[in-house]
Write a structure and sequence with these properties.
alpha+beta, Glucose Permease (Domain IIA), eight-stranded antiparallel beta sheet, 3 helices
C-alpha cells in the first residue's frame, strides 16, 4: 500500500506542525501533558496516512461492465432527470465516501471525455439528496467504444472542500485508471443509461475498480 500524491503536501505540513507542537510541549510543559499531546499527534498522523492510502488492486477490463468509481456505501439508486448534459432520465447510483474510506476516484469504463463541467455550490453533507444538484461538483461524461455515455459526478461534502479531476475534455481514460481525488469526506454519483442492469443494492459497501455497479 502506497500514499497518494495528493497527500504529500498535506502530510508534510502536518508532520512539521506536529513536530513544532510537540517540541514546545517538551520544553515548556510537564511530561504528562507532553505524552498526552504526543499520543494525540500520533493518532492524527495515523488518520491522515490512512486517508491518503492507495491499496494495490488489479482489474480485468470489460466493456460491458461499469465498475464503482469509489470506495464507500451505496446511498442512492434511482431514476432521475439529468439536466446538465443528457437532458433525459438516467439511472443514478451514488456512493458516499466517509473520511475512513479511500478517496481515489476511478474510471468506471474506458473511453473518451466528451464533457467536463465544474460547478461551485453549497456544502451539504454528502449523503444529503440535495448534495448531487446543489453542492460544489465536477461532472465528466465518458463515451466508450460502443458509444455508450456515462457521467461521473464528484461532489464535495460538508468537510471535503477540494475536488481534483485529472482528465480534460477529449482525453481518454482506461477502466480502473485514476480519475481524480476528493479530500476528506465526499460523494460520487454515476449516471448510467436506463437500459443498464444495476447490480448493487442500497447500503451495500463497494470498492473502487473492484465492485461491478452495472452491466451495460
Amino acid at each position: 500500500m502506497n500514499i497518494h500524491k495528493e497527500g504529500f503536501k498535506i502530510i508534510r505540513n502536518i508532520i512539521l506542525g506536529l513536530l513544532v507542537l510537540n517540541l514546545l510541549m517538551w520544553f515548556f510543559f510537564s511530561l504528562c501533558i507532553f505524552y498526552y499531546i504526543l499520543s494525540a499527534s500520533l493518532i492524527i498522523l495515523f488518520f491522515v496516512l490512512h486517508f491518503f492510502r492507495i491499496p494495490c488492486r488489479s482489474i480485468v477490463n470489460n466493456e460491458k461492465q461499469a465498475f464503482s468509481s469509489a470506495d464507500g456505501t451505496i446511498v442512492a439508486i434511482e431514476e432521475v432527470e439529468e439536466n446538465t448534459y443528457f437532458k433525459c432520465k438516467m439511472n443514478q447510483v451514488s456512493v458516499f465516501m466517509s473520511p475512513l474510506n479511500i478517496h481515489v476516484n476511478h474510471f468506471p469504463v474506458s473511453g473518451k471525455i466528451v464533457y467536463k463541467q465544474h460547478d461551485p455550490g453549497k456544502y451539504w453533507v454528502a449523503w444529503h439528496p440535495k448534495s448531487s444538484a446543489e453542492n460544489e461538483r465536477t461532472s465528466i461524461v465518458i463515451q466508450n467504444q460502443s458509444g455508450i455515455e456515462i457521467m461521473v459526478r464528484q461532489i464535495a461534502g460538508a468537510v471535503a472542500r477540494r475536488i481534483v479531476t485529472y482528465p480534460n475534455l477529449n482525453d481518454t481514460g482506461t477502466q480502473g485508471e485514476e480519475l481524480g481525488f476528493i479530500k476528506f469526506g465526499s460523494r460520487v454519483d454515476i449516471f448510467l443509461p436506463l437500459e443498464a442492469k444495476i447490480l448493487v443494492t442500497l447500503n451495500q459497501k463497494v470498492k473502487g475498480k473492484k465492485t461491478i455497479l452495472a452491466m451495460l
